[in-house]
Design brief:
The chain has 16 helices and 29 strands. The protein is an alpha+beta fold. It has 3 domains: 2-101, Tumour Suppressor Smad4 (Sandwich); 110-333, Beta-Lactamase; 370-513, Alpha-Beta Plaits, CATH 3.30.70.1230. The longest helix has 37 residues, at 313-349. The radius of gyration is 42 Å and the shape is rod-shaped. It starts with a strand and ends with a strand.
Length: 628
Amino acid sequence: MLCFSVSNKRERTRFRHESGPIELGRQPKLGGPEHVVQDPYVSASQLLVEELPGDRVRIMNLSQKVKADLANGTPIEPCTSCELDLPVRLTVGATLIEIAPEGSEEGSVEEMGTIARPISFGGATRPLGATASPPAEGGASGLVMGTGTSDFAEARPEERVVPSLAGLDETPQAEQLARWFERVVAVQRAAASSNAFFEETARAVVELIGLDRGLVLSRKDRDWKVEAGYPPDAHETFIYSKTILERVCQERRTFFRMLGPCSTTESLWGVNAVVASPVFNTEGTEVIGVVYGARLRDITTVVHTGRMAEISPLEAQLVQVLAAAVGAGLARRESELEAMRRSVQFEQFFSCELARELDRDASMLEGRIREVTILVSDIRGFSRLAERLGPRETCLMMNQVLERLTARIFEQGGVVVDYVGDGILAMWNAPVDQPDHSARACRAAMLMQAELPELNARWRDRIGGTLALGIGINTGEALVGNTGSLQKFKYGPLGQTVNLASRVEGATKQIGIPTLITGTTHAQLGGTFATRRLCTIRVVGIERATDLHELHAIEPDPEWRARAEEYEKALSSFEARRWSEACRTLAPLLAGQEGNYDLPALTLLGRAIECLKTNPTDFDPVLAFTIK
């Protein structure tokens, strides 16, 4: 059985012939098996072809005038015949005819010698050329280039006028090299911002190298996708060979090959030679795409030169250069996308300035022990408010409240670690150093409390009351890093410092002061805020007692400061078991406060009176809070 391929401007036909002679011509006349050739330059009865034993064929030129030319330039004159070894390529008129035995392969691949120069465009470095040994374990594979066996010498059509390798020898001039590198740089420049580098690469395969078709394909989960083709309709009219692509992936090497004279593969019909070069991932360990080029069967070239257009080693090497540029472009694009993802993540938790700093040095996010100041806030009576408003109104109110409170935290350089219902967890002094982190957190707390009057003006009528905010602040060491998971990033602190800040926020309800800070936070303020020491407490889950201070205002008020000093004097008397002295100091502070008592003073007076009545032998001035 013989396989025929007939190609000209009017037809591209493949067919099989079982046995016996077959006539080919414009109007066959012998009455036996025949094929009509759609070429006005072919005689009505042109060729008679008969298969012979031993993969040979007899060809008789039936024409009286038109000769047929074998691919090596030997003519088959009119009214003569010859016997040839298969496969056979010949031209007659403007038609290329290829004859091959049944079951012939698409083409063979032979390895070339090693070229030592590496190619690197910012990704993994890969040697250019062939290697007879397998790549090192886990390393990037070298380029192995193959060429099909052929009887045809290198040939290029004189009519091709493009700024490409076509018509040049293996040593291009400096001017041509400069144009090549300019084109490669153009591919990389496009890759920095968009998918345009796919299109630039496919176009360069045709215009720069001089092939007839250029494709860029991506690979994911063993599926191939055409990212770009040139000419623009190439991806619609040109079918690539998956067999070749899979071999490139398996061996992670570049192949260029001359095809057999009568390919039976649909994807390579009408194609004379192909080249496929792998695009590697950033690590150089996986083929994620291929730059694919083809030279079609050009009857004009055959007619003028008697030779078939192949793909030269130099052309194949330049395809690899383009593939390396695509790999670098993809790596750059992935880096840019990762930077964008990081920026989006960072800006959810950090101020814009801090987000930029983290993008510059993401190692600051690594888990480490740091001294931090933690702020925890909570809206008083939120469950009651949510029940009154309903889901839609509650969501609207919380959006407004959290947006304003978050802005005040960001103004002071804080990190919003998390939103928990109506609460906020924020942090200072991580991931970057902030020597005044305690003061920053306290200023943020005061600014957050200052937002309530305007928020209440908007929501008072709808909630039937006023919004109130409790804030607890604590300073201490914590393990700071990604406290989320690989799937969901959450940068924040872990440890008792965080737990104590949460307990302190809860204590604001029992003590009746909206903003409380611990003694460790107070110790770092240096008297720059209006504060007073309220008591010493011990909370659930934490054995160590801690001092609590009221954070009253950013700027000290003389009258309030005087009253705070009197309270602290009474507190010292109480803790020293001088309970009657404490009562005498506290009584004037409560005078005239009908309906608006200072709750810490009232609570301390009650404790002092109880001690006067019972005179406890096991007196402990520390308040024990049994609820969170």
